[in-house]
Here is the input.
Amino acid sequence: MTTSDPTGLHRVLDEPVAGSLPLPQAARRLDTRKTLWPDEVRIRVERLNLDAASFRQLEAAHDGDGEAVRREVLDIVADRGKMQNPVTGSGGMLVGVVEEVGPESPLGLSVGDRVATLVSLTLTPLVIEDGLERWAGEDEQVPCDGYAILFGRSIAAVLPDDEAPELALSVMDVCGAPALTRRVVSERYTGGVVAVIGGGGKSGSLSLAAARDAGAGHLIGIVPTEAEAERLRDAGLADEVVIADARNPVALRDAVTKAAPIASSSASAGGPADVTVVCVDVPGCEGGAILSTADSGTVVFFSMATSFSAAALGAEGLAADVTMLVGNGYVPGHAAYALDLLRANRGVRTLFEGRLAP
Here is the structure.
């Protein structure tokens, strides 16, 4: 293409299908040329944050061999011109410094701004120039030197001066989850029961804090192990913490609605939930989330491991009258809100800093 499109169509290298190009996220390969179109921005990349579902799949596929994981990430980016795991379809986000701004860019960025991109790496043209030599392939945060391109309809947030870049990146990676949780709870379920599957993780802990902020009456955090339960109890984010395998629908339903398997001041976890938020990065949790949710309740799926056909057909097969929402990662003001929750809630900060500790 000789002219740019704010969606990034001019960077798509696929052949047209039925006379049109796929959007960059759906494209097989993107053009990574360094020269900018007038509405683009180029970022000098400092760090990638791989999507949790993607990193888990890569780690499992290579039996924990970090060097093999590193090589595959390099191969994916070199082959596709973006970081899009071909198995999970997901990518992540990045932190870097604005290197050049096109004269027609609407993003409001300036050269020298340190930013986090709030759009997925699955649609961001990316070139890695250092071979990821500083990354052992053993965690989601990837020190990196290279460049990335933002389009006219991309989103980026200038990093705050009062937080470490690694911490801010970790928060912004999942900032859509708390913002949508707050919206759902405040609009329909003030005073209700909110269950967060994966409540001890990044998006889960922020979602619990957001639900409390929005006026939820009772919070249930679901985690898979006693160690995670202990951390979540210490953080004080949930009224009840239950241990359950979210892939076991009946066990999850029972844990949420009846028997909390840890010491508790009540005999019940307090469910079923009016709102169930799914924040785990493993497949097979759709049925349990639906069963744990009351009639006329809402299930919010934030995990990229979710099978949306399984969710839709599962709800139908269970005659479950629930609304199901796809967390698309964007709600206006989501980055600022997530950082506000981090600053205001010591429990959230402790969980995030614990994940970043070596």
The chain has a mean pLDDT of 92. The chain is about 30% helix and 20% strand. The radius of gyration is 21 Å. The longest strand covers residues 41-50.
